[in-house]
Amino acid sequence: MNSDVRMRIGILSAVVTGALLASLARAGIADVKVTTDTSIDCSSVQTIARDLYRNCRTDQDKAIATWYFVRRMMFHWPHIPTWDTVDLINSYGIGLCGYQSKAFAEISQAGGIKARTLQMPGHVLAEAWYDGDWHFFDCQVGWFVYAKDKHTVASHDAIANDPSIVLDAIKDGRASEPFFQCRAGANSSDSPADGVRYARTAKPDGAPKVPDSRLVINLRRGESITRTWSNEGHSWFQQDQPQPGKFVSLQHLCTAAAIDENDPVNWPYWKPYAVQTVNSQGKSRYAPKRVFGNGRMVYEPDLASDAFRDGLAKDGLEGIKAKYQDKQGPNLHPAAAGQLGAVIFEIDCPYVAVDAWLDISGVRHDNDVAVVYARSDKDPRSDWKEIWRADGGNAFRAANLSLKDVAWQQHRYFVKIELHAARAARDVGIDTLKCTTVFINNMYALPYLMPGKNLVRVTAAEKPDTKHNPLTLKYVWQEQGKDKTLETRINKLPFETTVEVAGHEIPRMTSVTLAIGP
């Protein structure tokens, strides 16, 4: 099996064969990706290293670029649900020191630089090996320091042997920018003096294995994915449900002593989304926080055609007929009266789901049965949970049926509709189905645009039939205070187009959408 086709989502499992990719491509588009030549492709640590290092001349350039990148992608937050770097960068956008140092080492190694993490009580740091020595980086607190030659990043051994390398770094013009950015205030232990303690205490912990996981987007007919540079308030992975009015947003919690403007490389990326405030003297400043993003995956197949078959789970159609087959009843109905029929849809999300709901319509006579169930992918052996049951007669329409419990923090879940006709198969069935999944996405890992010319590229695992899988790309952003939209129907993949962005500042991105018609 080719390791390049490892997938986070798929039809049957997380690892799919080339033959299955081809099958999906005929009834949808497999591994569809939007990239730009001005952003970083964050779908794997390998693509991150490739794009991040494209303009680097030396290994030290690469190591410093990795330090800035990890800090741009992850702000620190205490509740970390996974160690998977691909999920942390693409979905969560957070990570304490251990997670950030691990990501630093993985990306460095993927780009050909030997790297490792270092452990000490209460903190984890990283080192990269080049030019015959180790070089010390603190991704969370936010500092590294040049040796006294003012050109080479110092190692932890060098700092331990000569504390002035850190203590005199600002005076000598050898400090990184920022330098101990994420300190918690005047009484914090995160200071240059404490950096000496880090260097003396930290012990090498080895090199983490470079992951081969990837973020992969598969779309079926009638499915769309919209990723946004904003959020829906409560739609994130917080485990403990707060009291009403006590909601705490997922955000960078450093105090004003660690303003993001101190990071000259990353601030231009954060600035378009920062909250601007005015102090008592009328001076404008930006709030020192970064926040999370949300997106939506919507699956709304045309039940009047065979498009719904794209979304079926394995063995997901039993005792059910479609109207286009027998010309009777609702779009999906029991194959025969007196027999229970069931249709199971599989919802695959490349990002971590944090909410979901179902809209459904159809018909049911008095003695007939129409029931909706759902099940998480966390435990395939778990029982189906009843979500909704039709009552009354004639047409029904149910909206916003919550699927949050089964979708929560998952990449995949299942929806089952059971139908039973007492007298005639045409008396009960469903005509429409729409499943909406809200996920959490890291705003800074999305394919953004930059000032000037941007080459936007859309690719897929293989050349799909875009005639029967009509694909639409839509970008929305603001530049120089003006709303901008790029929307295009893609008739052939790979697809390329150029977008010119005016001005000198990075635009405020809004959303990027991929959609296949029903």
Q: What this model shows, in words?
A:
The chain is an alpha+beta fold. 17% of the residues lie in helices and 33% in strands. The chain has twelve helices and 26 strands. It has helices at residues 18-26, 45-52, 59-73, 85-92, 97-110, 156-161, 164-167, 169-172, 192-201, 267-270, 323-326, 404-407; strands at 28-29, 33-36, 114-120, 123-130, 133-137, 203-206, 219-220, 223-228, 276-278, 284-286, 293-299, 312-318, 320-322, 332-334, 340-348, 352-364, 369-376, 385-389, 394-402, 412-420, 429-441, 452-459, 471-479, 482-490, 495-501, 508-516. The chain has an eight-stranded antiparallel sheet with strand order 19-16-21-11-8-26-23-24. Strands 12-15-20-17-18 form a five-stranded antiparallel sheet. The protein has a four-stranded antiparallel sheet with strand order 5-4-3-6, sandwiched between helices. Helix 2 crosses helix 5 and helix 3 (59-73) packs across helix 5 (97-110). The longest helix has 15 residues, at 59-73. The radius of gyration is 26 Å and the shape is elongated. It starts with 17 loop residues before the first helix and ends with a strand.
